[in-house]
Queue: 3 jobs
Job 1
Amino acid sequence: MAMFLINVIPITRGILKENLSYFSSEDIPIGSLVEVPLRNKKISALVVDKKNAAEAKAEIKKADFSIKKISEIKYSKFLPQEFIETAK
């Protein structure tokens, strides 16, 4: 079973405006709206990038934090991938 490293932007007030990393066994499309754990809460977040975990092994190992699992996929392809790529 393939694992994926998913980068998201939290959609909430008072949270850093940087990408956060999570993992998933599902191939979640870029632009999807997901629910992720953050500071003992579950918040909505937008998927902005994804990588196969095997390809991102070095990045995962050097992280100074534990990577948590995405809780739920709320809307698959909430925004088109082209929109996300343009916004980057």
Note: The first strand starts at residue 4 and ends at 10.
Job 2
Amino acid sequence: PYRATISHEEFARGIAKLIKDIRYTNFKNEVLRKMGSQREQTYSKVWHTLQELEGLTNET
């Protein structure tokens, strides 16, 4: 196990740089291109499951 300590400001700058470096327009197409159809299909299943959950209430 490893642990790093940075300030919130440093973390925010790092995340902002990662976001600025995104060069694709469609995430799922980029997953297909770089990681293959099996990974893209898995991501699509997760995406659809999360969309279904948005319609549910917090009933127990």
Note: The chain is about 65% helix and 0% strand.
Job 3
Amino acid sequence: MLVGSFTYFSYAVTGEQKIKDNNRKINNAQHQLDKNKKDQANVTKEMQGVKNKINKTEKEIKTLTKDVVDAHDKLVEASDKLQAEKEKLNKGNENLGKRLRNIYKSGGVGFLDVILSSSSASDLFSNLEMVKYIFKNDNQVVAQLTKTYEAIKEEQKAVEQQEVALKKKQDELAEKEKSLGKDYARLDDKKDDLQADGKKLQKQISQWKADSADIEATIKRNSNHHIGKQGGGHSGGSNSGGASAKGFIRPVNGVITSGFGYRTYQIGNKTYSDFHLGIDIAAPTGTPVKAAKAGRVIWSGWKGSYGNLVVIDHGNGVATAYGHNSQLNVSVGQEVSQGQIIAKVGSTGNSSGPHCHFEVRINGRVVNPLSYV
């Protein structure tokens, strides 16, 4: 019966440890998943920001394109005006040239001709003024045409410079839009990667939960099988009772440094989160560890992370475990009474300091020891 009891308890311990490991993995994966979701939200927000910039740039390009077209139209208009003024100027110069050539061909209209052709002093003065007026008027016409031509030429130059500047800005905006497009594509790829990672994490979490559920179901089946085989079970003396019975004592007097259930703790510089299967009672190394209730010892020896472990079967599916001991004072098969010294406090196995790790199990499943002691 001892072999069956321990085998059942050992599987429950191993199963609970596996569930504990799964819970730790689930907890860590959930933290990663939460961060993943935040990262996805941040990337989505960033993508929206880039999209807004792209839309703004597209509007600027649209407006600028219209400005370029307007500038080009102005340039064409200025070119047409310049050509027209150039033709006028050429015409004026041509008329002036013709006049000068005609004067030259006719022998010239010099002062002597004017004097000789004048009948009086008054007539002479009038003729001289007329000649001066004709040349002055021709020169003024040419000068005005030249001035207008140069003004239009400057206007054309300004419009050309404006068009060049607008096209340059247009090219810059096009390059900006291209760069923003690349940023958006990069963020979109990043979001896809995050979504893929999130799905993987969710799948792992589901697998670990399913694994834990299978283990719990197996523990429950084994528990029912064990109780059926055990029948009335080991009574453990007058202090024993059913799963709901009280009458337990604390194995060690001391401060509870870690309670039952989910916890976060630190070892060195690393922080861990897991499900604690019992309670930790701090006490100096060598402090006597007492049986919480009468029963039969089904394990006394080394048990992995528990270090030196003692397990007592109290009958009716109730068992207690005492871990991390520095010394074992009982052996398998030994009947012990409540309060009997079964071990000494230590820090063996997975332990950060001397304490008694105390568990209460009902049909192999851990329960909160504080409900019993």
Note: The longest helix spans residues 121-230.
